[in-house]
Amino acid sequence: MSETIEFGQYVVERLKQAGVKQCFGVPGDFNLGKESTPGNLILRLDFVEADPDIEWVGNANELNAAYAADGYARVKGGLAVIVTTFGVGELSALCGIAGALAERVPVLHIVGAPSTKLQSSDSLLHHTLNLPGSFTTFSTMSAPLSCSQALLNTIAPKTPTAWTEAFDKTLKDVLEQCRPGYVEIPTDAFHAKVSAEGLKEALPHPHSAPPPESVAASLPTAGSQATATSTLAAATSAAPRAPSDDVTAHVVQDIAERFKNAKKPVILVDACAGRFGMAGEVRKLVETCGIRFFETPMGKSLLDEHHPLFGGCYAGANSLPPVREEVESADFVLYVGALKSDFNSGSFSVNIDPKITIELHSFTTNIGYAAYPTTDIRHVLPDLLPAFQDVIQSRAASPAEGESADQKIRAGRVESIVPEPKGSEIKHEWLWPRVGKWFADTDIIITETGTSSFGLTNVLLPSHSTYIAQILWGAIGWSVGACLGAAMAAREDKKDRRTVLFVGDGSLQLTLQEIGTMLRRDVHPYLFVLNNDGYEIERQIHGETAKYNDIQLYDHQLLLPFLAGKSCKTAYQSYVVKTPEELNNLLEDKEFNVPDRLRLIEVYMPRGDAPEGLIRQAKLTAEANARI
């Protein structure tokens, strides 16, 4: 490793150190070389293209690229990167970046900007707003959506490490906080010589705890800007978690004492348990201490849903009655990584006594009504098991008279039973249990916001599957871009995992271009398109017969040939199923179950039909609105 390195190469090396192998985005003319002058156009993306260990994916638009980065990061459990051009490109990506912020996904947004010379002279360039000071407008817009920003144009490179320290500060913040970060790089910065010394410092990982002193420093997250003098204590892979400080030790002791006195303890697993890699630690607690556990809709598949101690999916009043009864009658609730959004909590109907609740977050621990904002889930949770050693015993509820222990354990969860279809149409009541039986053990399952995500809430997923859905942010169309990113991540690990998408015909129309990128990149997901003639989730909430919930119907059987064009070498196949028998036969077909091509399965469903969970949620939403 040379003493100095071009800054563009430094960035690529840092991304590789963070585990990135795919780079999403759209090229633009501010992705050019030292100066944007004709005849001297050296693409800064050449740093990516020339590297054998990182691949430029290339997306149809920046919004789709942001969605793809989101899906990639969720499946990898680590960093994803999107590269856009200044102004028009970066603004197109912001809806996807906002979703990553809301749902705690570590996405680094790198923006290619005009040169420092052109910015300092306030030149009237294309992609600007024809207003004074417009070069700072777009980074200012991104600030509330970023945990950290590195604006290199504002940092004088007085030392060889000025820019690398600023870049590293934002990169580390993204990794430690699992939130998006923003780096703006002028065209003349990429070829500037910088110190390579920073490459020797190990990067943190979202699943590794930061030092205790950096937890408090991370609290004011939105919009913080990196400067040339910014520093951050290193968190290396060799030391996965720092020793607990006095506050953390007190928190662990308090939780252990409460657990000792509990008669009916439960663990509730939510989204951030997965974002910060704590699912394995939760499983240790569950199995060692015999504690019943439940998942929220955003926590699905984080633990084995076929485990005998699994009780079901809890979402307040939108839970199955036995699940709701057991969770809400507990006397100790360890709530791991909570995200209490409306759809994740049955319109805020969670009815758990705060006095018996312990919430573990990356930024605080709440015990009853007390909060400890300098503690971190990645410090506290690993220390709970040894603290529980003197109280470890079976916590499964005593079997009721006439019931076996196994029957009692399963009383609060949905059974994997496929009902007989009613009539000749494919309806939600039958569809979701049926596809639940079809899933393979290691499938990556992606559902669009709407009927799909509500349909699978109470279906037991395979023990080693990965489930992703954007339940909090809920941008329709997100799932198609996320499916691309998920499929690219799955191909990296070489475990032959299938990627399966469920998306409605309305949501598909927003982002279907990314199916073309799937074909271009030779990935082979199963794309189940639910054709129910429009926006069914909206109809369930309001406007059952309103025209604004209608869409122009596409001929989905023409999509793959159209998007593949005449030069695509990726195999693909389209299917149409209109009856339970047709879908059943397809799912049982041996050739269909081999992921050797991209498949689009158009599933015709009757308008007005919806999963029970969605119907309940619509009712809860209406009741909540009526109380306002």
Give a quick summary of the entry.
The protein has 628 residues and is α/β, with parallel strands linked by helices.
Task: Show the helix and strand layout.
Blueprint (H helix, E strand, L loop, with lengths): L3 E3 H11 L4 E4 L20 H4 L5 E2 L5 H15 L3 E6 L2 H15 L4 E7 L2 H5 L16 H6 L6 E3 L10 H16 L3 E6 L6 E3 L16 H6 L7 E2 L19 H16 L3 E5 L1 H5 L3 H11 L2 E4 L14 E4 L7 H8 L3 E5 L20 E4 L4 E3 L2 E3 L4 H11 L17 H5 L18 H11 L5 E4 L3 H5 L10 E4 L8 H16 L5 E6 H7 L2 H7 L5 E6 L4 H6 L17 H6 L7 E6 L2 H9 L9 E7 L7 H16 L1
Parallel strand pairs: 2-3, 2-4, 4-5, 5-7, 6-7, 6-9, 10-11, 10-13, 11-12, 13-14, 17-18, 17-19, 19-20, 20-22, 21-22
Antiparallel strand pairs: 1-8, 14-15, 15-16
